[in-house]
Amino acid sequence: MGTATSSMAAKFAFFPPNPPSYNITVDEASGKMRFSDVNYQRDNVDVLKLSTKRGNEIVAMYVKNPSASLTVLYSHGNAADIGQMYHIFTELSVHLNVNLMGYDYSGYGQSSGKPSEQDTYADIEAANKCLEEMYGIKQEDTILYGQSVGSGPALELAIRLPHLRAVILHSPILSGLRVMYPVKRTLWFDIYKNIDKIPLVDCPILVIHGTEDEVVNFSHGKQLWELCKEKCEPLWLKGGNHCDLELYPEYLRHLRKFISAIEKLQRPRDAPDLKPKDQTEQASNNVTEQSKEKSRPSIDYREKGRPSFGHREKSRLSTDSRDKARASIDKREKSRKSIDRSFKARNSTDHSERARNSFDRLGDMVRSVGLCNVDCLKQTAAEV
Question: Which residue numbers delimit the Serine aminopeptidase S33 domain (predicted)?
Answer without folding.
Answer: 70-176
